[in-house]
Amino acid sequence: MFGFSARSISNVLFWVTRKKWLILSFLLSISFFYIPSPDGLSPEGHRTLIIVGVTLILIISESIPLPAVAILILIMEVILGVDTADGVASSFMSDAVFFIMGSLMLAVSLVNQGLDKRLALSVINVTGNKTWRIVLGFVTISALLSSFIGEHTVGAMMLPVALALIRNAGLDTDKATNLSTVLLFSIAYGCAIGSIGTPSGGGRNVIMIGYLSEFGMGTVSYLDWMKFTYPMLLIEIPIVAAIVWYTFTPSQKIMDSSVRKLKVKVAKTGEMNANQYMAIAIFLVVFFGWIFLSPFIGLGIVALSGVFLYISFGLVDWQDINKNTNWGVILLFGAAISLGIQMRETGAALWVAEQTLQYLEHVFQDIAIVRWFVAVVVTGILTNLLSNAATVAVLGPIILDMGGNAILMGIMTSVASAFAYLTVVASPTCMIIHSTGLISSSDYFKAGWKLFVISVLLLFMISTFYWPMLL
Amino acid sequence: MKILIAISSKEYSGPTLDVGMNIARILKASTTIVDVGQKISEFSMKDVSLANELMESWDIDRPGVDVLEWAYKYLEKNQFIDSQDMCDGFPKHSLVDSGAGRAEMLLQGSTIEDLSLILRNGEIIDELRDEVQTHEYDLTIIGGSGKRSMAHDLVQYIDSSIFVVNNFDLDQDYKILLAVDDSPGTSKAVKYGVRVAQAFNNKVDLLTISNDEHFGDEYRHASARAVKMMRRSGVEAEAHFKVGDPVDSIVETAGQDHIIIMGASTQSPIAKFFLGSKPLNVMRNCDCPVLIVK
Known about the structure:
- The structure holds two protein chains of two kinds.
- By secondary structure, chain A is mainly α.
- Chain A is 77% helix and 0% strand.
- In chain A, α9 (151-168) crosses α13.
- Chain B has ten helices and twelve strands.
- Chain B starts with a strand and ends with a strand.
- Chain B is α/β, with parallel strands linked by helices.
- Chain B is globular, with a radius of gyration of 21 Å.
- Chain B has helices at 10-27, 45-57, 65-77, 124-135, 147-157, 184-200, 217-232, 246-254, 269-275, 278-285; strands at residues 2-7, 30-37, 96-97, 102-107, 115-121, 139-143, 161-165, 175-179, 204-210, 237-243, 258-263, 290-293.
- Helix content of chain B is 42%, strand content 23%.
């Protein structure tokens, strides 16, 4: 047909079916471009919202690689005249992006030290061999550690511990059983509730802090953040353990031989070596840096200082960092934050916020409830479809423009973005446990919805009764 | 001749592997067995690979390796690999990453030419298509589990011939149902049919279908030629003529005791995409194995 071979036509058809969302987003953006701007929305704001729409479609459909989405955001910002090239470039890099980059590199540095076996031993020594105590132990340690070093790091380190236990329980490792499900979910959900604990628990917390100071709405220090969120984290630990236990109660109530074999295995690796002590010491330096220095030099610079120490002390090879750092994600968050800032500056965020308030006020009759609904429920749902950091980057400016106490609204949004319990793509730890092939996608919903509802209610109570006391 | 056998798990892929390897043995084809694992979201790709690296230090296999190990044991047991060369059992450490989420293991001492195992991660159609295109396979053999939802994409986008091992019972004697008409695809399908029938000692039913009572000369010639070719190759063949809808007749005649072999449609890809094709509709509706020859 027209001189094209059947094979090349078939290639084009394949491309079209695989890229249908890309094509759709392109067509939608052209048609929205020619619709006149609605009242109260500037032409720049109108075009910024087009970029937001395209970004959301492309991230959710995963029809093109993430770095390509990031590059497209930057290109569209300049071509649609939202900002100049230099303006886009300067909003692209910020301390929050430094932090995300540093935190991903710190993860590689820590994971490379072989500390996972130490971690396993200390968990098992405390919990003993009863399965329910191991589940509670996994949730606790995942939550506490991920609140400081980030959920992706802890998820990667805890996975082999759980799999070693499952394998030594004498079960077929490639069949899903309640035992494997309960142990893996205790890690994933433990990490999720942990990530709200401090700013360094997740990149999205830092993105929110960045927005607050960028928009001149207030500053939140590392310790202030902990005062707001840590009580909720502690309350959620037993709740998570109970929910996963009663949803996936395993038949093996005691894991005697697994625990013994694990101890033997870890004993073979010998005492802790100098490098491991050094690695922990550097992390403590970073931790104290976050607490005491970050108000002056920024959370991102502190994280990067840690990376600098790890590399220059020879504790990690640059090659390893280069290979295992997700550069695409760094680019995407840079671009998403830049987009967030443009949403604020062009008034697009304010316009969306006002429209939402107006519309939802008819439904709820009370503006405070509307704000709460968007910050918690909408964020919580979107975080399960997008990644949690992308959710905060895009929703953050809108929620901050809805009025109310900006700091409370900001922290509430960040906390709600951790309710990533329902889908595989919701968070890195959800994906890590799914990649083992032991968890089916429907399992996420089974335990996840209960946890989601309880978390929403808990956040409501804490933000209504406890947070105002801190102000 | 290059064959690709797609497997997914111990529970479901037994017949696929068995049929595939027997075909490979008979056709003396170089063979690759592929397991396509979970698609990993891009946000978490590096986190998952970090976790996998740690698992290696714990001697825990990354996901998918157990499926390859199972396939390896099958090959060993059925003497596709000379076990004397492989005293150490499954050579886990010879699984080499060849980039873009693809890892390959070339098996030494195989009794057929080039036998390898590979592991890929992603959407199954994307991965199979890429594998078939870059490595130019002639035949892709796949289990029937996702048949209905994947049928369209398989027929439309995989460039090789496709054998869907659907509802295959290893203990049953199958006959071959060859759909014959005057299209260019038929002669290729007949050639495949002869080889498969010789290999498994099957009887062949040649089925020619017309929409009305009048069978054209081309149809009769095509059928006669096919019968002649079968007889010459020592295959027992019987010609049948039926009136009715081609797809319904093929599916109905095949029942559960035939392997359907038919040529791929020669329509343009665009027409196939929007209107479908006979092979596609047969694949969607039948309850038996189907081989579509391209």
